[in-house]
């Protein structure tokens, strides 16, 4: 008889009722363009116009916000990890980092950041990587790749348009021997990062549903997405 596999993570697992949530405010003052609350496990997207600033609030603390950025008028031009890291000569994303496209042109600039460093080399989780890393009992759990695909489809994008991503609020240190780790986060409830659009950009975010490693502190919490015109 076939074996029934059971996961230790309940379907739709989210934060405990008594989890500390801090919705905070925009990191940059300005006129509100939009203000969205993203439920745990859910995706989000919006076009951020040139000059506008997007603040991402880590409402519950240590909640990874996986992120893709595209030129809103030509989505074939999109965020590039190697171009970004080569341009700044550093493996981490911090205040002042310019998010570069695959054409070597600026898409957005980090203008405010309340944690020491942000990640752009840890990649995104998926059903496939979950089963490889944690076992086939996790196969039913959707990951950031599935969130990206669902949200990208709303903008006419598909599998071929997924590229390496940013991981806001995720702690992926580069160890002395060059190894990468996914370890306890450095963020806290209400911590923020703010990025300014250098042109009209489409931003797609997955409120990471990962519950099998410390990237979300084993407690999936909401995000707040605030766009302002300074």
Strands side by side in the biggest sheet: 1-10-3-8-6-5
Note the run of SSEs as H and E: EEEEHEEHHEEEE
**Principal-axes shape call:** globular
Strand fraction equals: 25-35%
Regions with little confidence, pLDDT below 50 for 5+ residues: 1-7
Q: What level of helicity do the residues show?
A: 10-25%
Q: What is the alpha-carbon Rg in Å?
A: 17 Å
Oligomeric composition of the shown chains: single chain
Q: Count of DSSP helices?
A: 3
For the sheet with most strands, the description reads: 6 strands, antiparallel
- What is the straight-line distance between the termini? 63 Å
Polypeptide structure, described:
- This protein has helices spanning 81-88, 127-134, 144-153, and strands spanning 31-38, 43-48, 53-58, 65-71, 98-100, 106-113, 166-168, 191-197, 201-207, 223-229.
- Mean pLDDT is 89; it is low at 1-7.
- It has a 6-stranded antiparallel β-sheet with strand order 1-10-3-8-6-5. A 4-stranded antiparallel β-sheet has the order 2-9-4-7, with helices on one face.
- The protein has 230 residues and is of the alpha+beta class.
- 43% of the residues are buried.
- It contains 3 helices and 10 strands; from the N terminus they run E-E-E-E-H-E-E-H-H-E-E-E-E.
Short overview:
This protein is an alpha+beta fold and 230 residues long. Helix content is 11%, strand content 27%. A 6-stranded antiparallel β-sheet has the order 1-10-3-8-6-5. Strands 2-9-4-7 form a 4-stranded antiparallel β-sheet, covered by helices on one side.
């Amino acid at each position: 008889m076939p074996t029934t596999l059971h996961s230790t993570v309940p379907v739709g697992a989210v934060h405990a009722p008594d989890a500390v949530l801090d919705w905070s405010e925009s990191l940059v003052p300005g006129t509100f363009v939009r203000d969205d609350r993203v439920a745990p496990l859910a995706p989000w997207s919006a076009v951020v116009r040139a000059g506008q600033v997007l603040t991402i609030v880590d409402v519950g603390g240590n909640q990874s916000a996986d992120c893709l950025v595209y030129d809103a008028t030509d989505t074939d031009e999109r965020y590039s990890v190697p171009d970004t890291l080569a341009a700044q000569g550093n493996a981490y994303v911090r205040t002042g980092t310019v998010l570069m496209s695959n054409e070597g042109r600026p898409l957005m600039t980090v203008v405010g950041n309340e944690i020491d460093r942000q990640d752009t080399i840890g990649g995104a989780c998926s059903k496939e990587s979950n089963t490889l890393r944690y076992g086939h009992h996790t196969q039913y759990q959707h990951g950031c790749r599935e969130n990206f695909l669902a949200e990208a489809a709303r903008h006419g994008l598909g599998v071929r348009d997924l590229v390496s991503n940013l991981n806001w609020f995720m702690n992926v240190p580069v160890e002395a021997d060059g190894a990468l780790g996914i370890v306890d986060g450095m963020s806290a409830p209400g911590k923020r990062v703010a990025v300014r659009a250098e042109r009209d950009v489409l931003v797609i975010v997955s409120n990471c549903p990962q519950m099998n490693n410390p990237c979300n502190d084993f407690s999936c919490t909401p995000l707040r997405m605030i766009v302002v015109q300074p």
